[in-house]
Amino acid sequence: METPLVTIGVTCFNAEDTIGRAVASALHQDWPNFEMLIVDDMSSDGSIEAVESASAGDPKVRLIRHEKNIGPAGSRNTLLKEAKGGFLVFFDDDDKSSPNRISVQLRTLNNHEAETRATLVACYAGGIRRYPNGYIKDLPAIGSRREEIPFGPGVADYLLFYSKRRDWFYGAGVPACALMARLSTFKTVGGFDPSFRRVEDVDFAIRLAMSGGHFVGTSEQLYIQYSTAGADKSPEKNLESEQLLAVKNRPYLDNLGRYYYALHWPKLRYWHFKRRYGRFVLELLGLIFRHPFAVSTHLFTTGPARLRHESKMQRKQIA
């Protein structure tokens, strides 16, 4: 069996408590031919020491240190620049991947290419998210169910304004922590936009979709995402980045009559998170006035599940 070189890319920022676990799970992959690149984005804690301890001088591991903090998108671009493998898979600094993650994702990607002759394919791993209170949320991979694999601008429509096709399975979306693709695919699409401090993975997926890319996923759960908090994950940063997606794609959205929707739905979510329900209602009324059917469908499709999810997140520690 051919065993191409695979680059495991890890972006690290102030992750001294979790990076060792991520490194260990990468080094225990059953795929025999890989390199591991870790980009530290100017951490101010003990992340460097934790990486050095976990890697213990393994020649497969290379640590790259930024002299300036440039964010996750810029760090991913450093990985693209330095990678030597024909394939790149991202492992997050606070996640743990199963030993067969590379081999399963590579097989899934190669099989889809052989069956469809697609040249731009992103493969996402299925996983779970574990919360501090013991609650576990399934994170099924996009394209891991149903015969029709999501592809092309229809995926961008889902990511920008929640337009869904019934014959596609969208799973948990397009998180970079679950992503593998050929290095050439990343470079063809243009890498990651450093102006995004959050949702840089969604921006990449939108551009991949606009280029005709295919989105396939594994049915296996191959990683554990540990829910962590941080200033870089604030509702304000999420809102800013999600609205930037709409602004960046305004010509496309204007053509579909969906720019207001894509720009204001993140504000609706933001006011909900902040528990500013008066502002939430005003934002909702503005959306319903302009897009009554789409907003009603979106709200009743996702709202109840979201409320159940938030309730489970807030439960006390399970004994």
Task: Report the sheet-strand fraction.
Answer: 15-25%
Cα gyration radius (Å)? 20 Å
Number of strands: 9
Overall mean pLDDT score? 93
Quick overview:
With 319 residues, this protein is of the alpha/beta class. The protein has helices at residues 19-27, 47-55, 71-82, 101-116, 153-161, 183-189, 200-210, 235-248, 250-256, 259-273, 277-290, 292-313; strands at 6-12, 34-40, 61-65, 87-90, 95-97, 121-130, 136-139, 179-182, 214-226.
Can you tag this structure with a few keywords?
319 residues; single chain; Spore Coat Polysaccharide Biosynthesis Protein SpsA, Chain A; nine-stranded mixed sheet; 45% helix; 9 strands; alpha/beta
SSE topology sketch:
Elements: E1 6-12, H1 19-27, E2 34-40, H2 47-55, E3 61-65, H3 71-82, E4 87-90, E5 95-97, H4 101-116, E6 121-130, E7 136-139, H5 153-161, E8 179-182, H6 183-189, H7 200-210, E9 214-226, H8 235-248, H9 250-256, H10 259-273, H11 277-290, H12 292-313
Parallel strand pairs: 1-2, 1-4, 2-3, 6-9
Antiparallel strand pairs: 4-8, 5-9, 6-7, 6-8
Helix pairs in contact: 1-2, 5-7, 8-10, 10-11, 11-12
Written overview of the protein:
- The structure is a single chain.
- The chain is of the alpha/beta class and about 325 residues long.
- It has 2 domains: about 5-225, Spore Coat Polysaccharide Biosynthesis Protein SpsA, Chain A (Alpha-Beta Complex), CATH 3.90.550; about 235-315.
- It has helices at about 20-25, 45-55, 70-80, 100-115, 155-160, 185-190, 200-210, 235-250, 250-255, 260-275, 275-290, 290-315; strands at about 5-10, 35-40, 60-65, 85-90, 95, 120-130, 135-140, 180, 215-225.
- Strands 1, 2, 3, 4, 5, 6, 7, 8 and 9 form a 9-stranded mixed beta sheet that branches.
- β1, α1 (about 20-25) and β2 (about 35-40) form a beta-alpha-beta unit.
- α1 runs parallel beside α2 (about 45-55), α10 runs antiparallel to α11 (about 275-290) and α11 packs antiparallel against α12 (about 290-315).
- The radius of gyration is 20 Å and the shape is globular.
- The N and C termini lie far apart (about 45 Å).
- The relative contact order is 0.13.
